[in-house]
Design goal:
The structure is a homodimer of 433-residue chains.
Chain A (H helix, E strand, L loop, with lengths): L30 H7 L5 E2 L12 H19 L9 H12 L10 E5 H13 L5 E6 L3 H9 L3 E8 L2 E2 L1 H13 L4 E6 L13 H13 L3 E5 L23 E6 L10 E5 L2 H15 L4 H13 L2 H26 L4 E2 L7 E5 L6 H10 L2 E2 L1 E2 L12 E5 L5 H25 L19
């Protein structure tokens, strides 16, 4: 056959044997860029990595050593598929901070909340089923949804998050078309990437719509405890026990290296999640679970989270001040917590096309297209303020402004296609979550 | 509707929303039995848990504490989807012990080899595709295969493992029926549950058949380094780089609590595995990976594995002697390594039906039906000798003999149905792997 051949066909002896779902797995073309972006001279405003230097490492080292020395034969052994009961108990205490009342039996411990997302998608999604998600939505969720051949329908947001009327309209339209809507995926607090938070009354409105339309809500909440002012917005799960699957994580409030997250689900759903998890990994890591349990028992974790909040508040302020100073031609969201702001660039600019030039100018971000299932988003970019110091954030935004000014000049001279078509971000590199 | 309703329908608001694959997820009825079996007064010959008391816990505690104190900001951070390059390097050294030549780039680190199995199945299996597997086969693999709606075709074994002619016959028959065979799943060394090992010449024969028929071989090898005499049978991967996906694990040679295993795959397949893993868990645990790397760098891991071998050799001898003494009416395989022997009980006895009575008599095993996708196996049971002491093993087999004698009496008096139909084992409890 002449013309284009499918990539890898000639080199891959097993090409003809892959499952249908595998043909949707594409490597992100931006990986090479991110490899460049990880060089120390590049200011990365791309990553979602927490700033772990704020952790009491000596204490964690001691707690972990004590655990292995005294309980190693348990901590290094297989556990059960649902997760260790002691950690599940601690998780209910953590969630109580966000007004969630749950029993340890309701909790399923997972390999990061990414695995919880995978399990929820696995048990609910047949190819072609519809998942409602914010517009934009979390890149890692979109990649799971795609891997199960779901159709993602983006629902508009404003500065208060998901717009209820838009949600209702989308549901009515899809149902009229005979589509099977399986769940709404939402990050109501300190949204990734949008940086916005849904107020309580709007949460109630969204829950009402979903209840009426018999649509499950999957609430993803890794950032809820990272409000800059220490305030708490009650989780949607605290307002509806039977209609919400809640996903939590220690990755942003403690450390991602343990790969420990969890799901809280209505009883019957929780049973399916455990069975799916056992088929997939047998059981979550005892070493990680019991290390975290020992940490929570021994250390002032509430104080440590308060330290994290202060770090990220100061960095967010540096980000917002730099945007005002250097990027007055853009718009951005003003987060009250979490890791990200969502920036809209002037018309005609393509953030995908601009990314290689930004990297050359030693600054990195994630282009908005990563956060849509349908190729939208090239007028947006996500800037994260979680990892670099305030000084580096200012320097990064200053460099970005230089790149953007040149793009604007190019567009003014040669029109909006002057900057090239850009690249697709299909799958998350783990360092951009 | 009158008549039987699907279980859970009335209690589960989301029952109608599950994916097709989820209806195959069934809870094992034997879970309650295993809960009973975990009481200390029960001798469990059911578990596949390694005997961790043989590990140098004080040293592991110190190595781990040093790691967190000096490199905590890396060890507790996100990693990349393929796994840490340093650990991948160590994994190639471990595999070199079994004659495998691989580059660190060929290795994908996973959340236990169970996740590797999940990923291989995910990228290759569409519903209805055929997987060839030994008869019997590993319960955890069967549960993954089932969760992706694969058809498992069992291929007969003898005391030298998979029978090549039977493999060829099965392939020819299935191809004549127009079935799509995706891969052969095999545990060639110290098979779980059969306890047997495929000699090198037979490995070559099986590889030849699969090469000729263009069928991928998935070689699962968690026990290969646990030969009682310290000998090594070359892995199938050492004989064929392009036709084999190899699965390895630290769960049996070091400790399962880290949930760290790996896959080695031809280049193009490896790329798909990494993408599928990123969608599923983002990245494997840095904490686990770097703890293991530090252990391998600091400790005499070859000596520790030699200690494990001695422990299991002595326990296997206790098992085989006890079987000779107490269960002369049964047949069993004679393992040269690993954790298990496969016992065949007299005709008319149903090991499923017998299990509750065995548990009441304070001894537990896994009924043979767990190791077949099609309900066979009720004349078999897997006895494991990895976890209890030699004294407990003898006591366990003695108790089992008492139970079996009563079953034989019952059958002699009332016929083979006197002992009841037994229960299905659908999914692995993590403690029986």
């Amino acid at each position: 056959m002449s013309g284009k051949s499918a990539p890898g066909t000639r080199l891959d002896r097993w090409f003809g044997a892959y499952a249908a779902r595998t043909h949707g797995l594409k490597s992100s073309e931006t990986r090479a860029l991110f490899a460049v972006a990880s060089r120390p001279e590049v200011v990365s405003l791309a990553g979602g990595m927490p700033f772990l230097d704020a952790l009491p490492m000596e204490i964690i080292a001691k707690v972990t050593a004590d655990l292995i020395a005294t309980e190693g034969a348990v901590a290094l052994q297989y556990g059960n598929g649902q997760g260790h009961p002691v950690l599940r108990g601690h998780i209910t205490e953590v969630m109580a901070e966000e007004a969630i009342q749950a029993h340890p039996d309701d909790v399923v411990v997972t390999t990061g909340s990414q695995q919880a997302l995978d399990l929820v998608t696995r048990i609910f999604i047949d190819p072609g089923d519809v998942i409602l998600a914010e517009s934009p939505s979390y890149v890692g969720a979109l990649s799971v949804f795609k891997s199960y051949e779901a159709w993602v329908e983006h629902v508009p947001m404003d500065d208060d998050g998901l717009v209820p009327q838009a949600l209702q309209d989308a549901i009515s339209r899809l149902k009229a078309e005979g589509r099977r809507i399986k769940f709404l995926y939402t990050i109501p607090t300190f949204h990734n990437p949008a940086g916005v938070t849904m107020p309580v009354d709007r949460r109630a409105e969204v829950l009402d719509i979903c209840h009426r339309e018999k649509i499950l809500v999957v609430e993803d909440n890794p950032y809820g405890m990272l409000a800059f002012d220490g305030s708490i917005t009650p989780a949607m799960r605290s307002m509806d026990e039977e209609g919400v699957v809640y996903l939590g994580s220690f990755s942003k409030t403690l450390a991602p290296g343990y790969r420990t997250g969890w799901a809280v689900a209505p009883h019957a759903v929780r049973e399916k999640l455990v069975l799916a998890s056992e088929a997939s990994i047998l059981c979550p890591s005892h070493a990680s679970q019991l290390s975290i349990a020992a940490y929570l028992e021994t250390c002032d974790w509430r104080g440590q989270i308060a330290d994290y909040r202060d770090v990220y508040r100061i960095r967010c302020e540096a980000m917002l001040e730099s945007l005002e100073e250097y990027l007055p031609q853009c718009r951005w969201t003003v987060p009250k917590g979490g890791f990200y702001t969502w920036v809209t660039v002037p018309e005609g600019i393509n953030t995908n096309a601009m990314l290689p030039r930004a990297t050359t100018a030693l600054v990195a971000y994630v282009s908005g297209t990563a956060f849509y299932a349908d190729g939208q988003g090239s007028r947006h970019m996500r800037l994260s303020f979680c990892y670099p110091t305030p000084e580096r954030i200012r320097e990064g935004v200053r460099r970005l402004a230089g790149v953007l000014d040149k793009e604007i000049d190019l567009v003014a001279m040669f029109g909006p296609h002057a900057t090239g078509p850009g690249r697709d971000v299909h799958f998350p590199a783990p360092d951009i979550v």
